[in-house]
Specification:
alpha/beta, D-Maltodextrin-Binding Protein, domain 2, 2 domains, six-stranded mixed sheet, 16 helices, globular, signal, ABC transporter, substrate-binding protein (Cluster 10, nitrate/sulfonate/bicarbonate)
């Protein structure tokens, strides 16, 4: 157990150090916008992850609304397994726009990545599920086996540590059990009995419940309602590409309006993209703990907890987290 704990802590430390090094290396070599000599991008790579938490972007991808709004820009879409991988891609210059959870975004910001949130994508509760009937709480889970999630600095990892602090008195009590795993693989590993628990997101958590899983944690009970995913980019890119930023915010707002006002139509589009029956998708997008809203919320609450357990060094100011867009006027 001790070696595993050391590995998790080391991976966090090494990851943060790598982000800091990449962020420093990218400074001064980016857009050159401060001197007014930048040129608008002709290619934009947008990264997202599997799951319903990216429904707004999946609709945009399926219907090519970004491409239609930006006909002179070569838009590409990349699916990745974790927010930390997306963060590294943006810092390294391989991606221009990313979508992900609060955890990797705040870790990057704290490490010196000059980026901000353009818009929220949704609010969703995140579940920690188990298939083991002998595990009814975190005390039972401690030492019982691996706990899968996208990465040790994912929003899911923050949720687990908050639960561990409240139930076990130590936020890092379960760190030795964390294993990095993409959501689809995590579902199969949980159902197959290869892991003790899986902290995931819609639609994967509902799929696990349908297979007989039991919920051990609910992020809304720990942090109140909060943003699950948002879209973000670096400051120099945003300053040099205001049209891209404006259209992205609009595209997300339009997709969220479809998801909220026309869930059946949205489910049909998502079914084609995700390979899930439309009826199942519609049930998911209309769940009571799912809301497709543009305003980011809960960032400060997560940041305060992350600072308290050493995941970040300080809580950022609101203006340092969000661009001034139509979506972020009431961001928190």
């Amino acid at each position: 157990m001790m070696s595993l704990t050391k590995n998790v802590r080391t991976s966090l430390a090494v990851g943060t150090t790598a982000v800091m090094a990449m962020a420093l290396a990218s400074c001064g070599g980016g857009g050159g916008s401060a001197s007014g000599d930048c040129e608008p991008a002709t290619k934009v790579a947008i990264a997202y992850q599997p799951g319903l938490g990216y429904a707004s972007l999946l609709i945009a991808k399926q219907e090519k609304t970004v491409e239609k709004a930006l006909p002179d820009v070569d838009v590409t879409w990349q699916e990745m397994n974790s927010g930390s991988a997306i963060r590294d891609g943006i810092v390294g210059g391989n991606l221009q726009v990313g979508a992900g959870g609060i955890g990797p975004f705040l870790v990057g910001l704290d490490a010196g990545v000059d980026w901000k949130v353009l818009s929220g994508l949704n609010n969703m509760s995140l579940y920690l599920n188990t298939m083991d009937s002998s595990i009814t709480n975190l005390e039972d889970l401690e030492g019982a086996g691996s706990i899968a999630m996208p990465a040790p600095d994912s929003i899911q990892a923050v949720v687990l540590r908050k639960g561990a602090e409240e139930e076990l008195g130590d936020a890092k009590a379960l760190d030795s059990q964390i294993v990095s795993m993409g959501h689809p693989d995590g579902v199969q590993a949980l159902i197959g009995g290869q892991i003790a628990a899986h902290l995931t997101s819609p639609p994967f958590q509902a799929q696990e419940i349908d297979e007989g899983a039991t919920k051990l944690l609910d992020s809304y009970q720990l942090f109140d309602e909060h943003t699950f995913n948002s879209i973000f980019t670096k400051t120099d890119f945003a300053e040099c590409n205001p049209k891209v930023v404006e259209e992205l915010v609009t595209v997300v707002a339009d997709a969220n309006a479809m998801l909220t006002d026309e869930p059946a139509q949205a489910a049909k589009v998502l079914s084609e993209e995700m390979g899930i029956p439309a009826a199942e998708v519609e049930e998911q997008v209309t769940s009571e703990d799912v809301a497709f809203v543009n305003t980011p919320t809960g960032f400060a609450t997560f940041a305060e907890f992350m600072e308290s357990i050493g995941m970040i060094q300080e809580v950022p100011e609101t203006g340092d987290m969000f661009f001034d867009t139509e979506a972020t006027a009431d961001a928190s």
